[in-house]
Every structure is written in C-alpha cells, then in structure tokens.
Amino acid sequence: MKPTSDWKQALEERLPLLGHRNWLVVADAAYPSQSKAGIETIVSGVGQQETMEFVLTQLNANRHIRPIIYFDRELKYMEEEDAPGVDDYRLWLHTTLGGMSLNSAPHERIIARLDQAAQMFSILVIKSTMTIPYTSVFFELDCGYWNAEAEARLRATILSEEGK
C-alpha cells in the first residue's frame, strides 16, 4: 500500500460525511488492512505525531462530531528496551490529548469493536509510518451537538408519554 497522494485532502473530504457511530483510526505502520466492507485504509506516509496533529485539528474543525478516544491497553505496559521510543511517545500522547477523556482496552477488543461497527457504519483508518507497536489511536465518533444526558432525558420523556 503506498501513501495516499493527499491523505489530508482525503480526510477533509470524508470527515463531513462521518458522524455518530463512525470510527477514525490513526494507526502505526504494522496495523493490518482489514478486509471488511466499510473499513477504508489510507496511508499518510508521515509520522504518527504529524498524522495525529492534523487529525485532531480536523476533528476540532468539524463540530458535528465529538471523538471518544481509545488506545491499546498494551501501550501502558511496554518497556523502552523492547520498543525504543515508546516512553517519548506516551509522554507526547498524554500531553497532546491532555484534558480529553482517554480510554484503554486490549487491542483485540478494540479491533473486534471496529469489526462490529463496520457491519453498519464506515471506518476510516489512516496508517502512519510509526514503527512502535500498540501506538494506534482510535476515535469513536459521537454526536458533537447532543450528549448522553440529553438522550437519556429524551428517552425517559418518550417512555413516560407512551406509557400513559
């Protein structure tokens, strides 16, 4: 797979199409190309940090979506001697995503969630040139102008009205 000639333009074109229940992944170089329909993979041809910074800028510019961020639980336990550069990456990641809600889960569980989501919703994977394992960042997209509390109130109102 070769770098998408203009991965930034591709992301800018696709983000307005994405919404609640779609996923966006910034992946390391060894992340597999998944074969399920609904999962599109493009290659940035640049490092993880540059890719992430552009993705975050674009997510902030698209107010109709709000990311719920996941990363591989394995990243927390990796040792610098086994994966040179992992300490600096973790520091950069937590500094860059500071203040955001971060979630971790085992890599295989996140992949299974992507596979399940792709049955009905689009997923965009952007592969970077990062060569440290378990450094992919997963963005589950949620509605940017509606939240879980408002949804719960709406559902309670509907239930109480229809239950009369």
Key traits:
164 residues; alpha/beta; RbsD-like fold; six-stranded mixed sheet; 6 helices; 38% helix
List the helices and strands and how they pair.
Elements: H1 7-14, E1 23-27, E2 39-43, H2 48-61, E3 65-72, H3 74-77, H4 86-96, E4 102-105, H5 107-117, E5 123-127, E6 137-143, H6 148-162
Written description of the protein model:
By secondary structure, the protein is an alpha/beta fold. It has a single domain (7-162), classed as RbsD-like domain (RbsD-like fold), CATH 3.40.1650. The chain is built from 6 helices and 6 strands; from the N terminus they run αββαβααβαββα. It has helices at residues 7-14, 48-61, 74-77, 86-96, 107-117, 148-162, and strands at residues 23-27, 39-43, 65-72, 102-105, 123-127, 137-143. A 6-stranded mixed beta sheet has the order 2-5-1-6-3-4. The termini are far apart. The model has no long low-confidence stretch (mean pLDDT 92).
Number of helices: 6
Identify the strand order in the major beta sheet.
2-5-1-6-3-4
Are there runs of 5+ residues with pLDDT below 50, and where? none
Question: What is the architecture at the second tier of CATH?
Answer: 3-Layer(aba) Sandwich
Broad CATH class: Alpha Beta
Number of domains: 1
Structural class: alpha/beta
The percent range for strand residues is: 15-25%
Distance between the termini: 58 Å
- Sheet having the most strands: 6 strands, mixed
Portion of residues in helices? 25-40%
Shape: globular
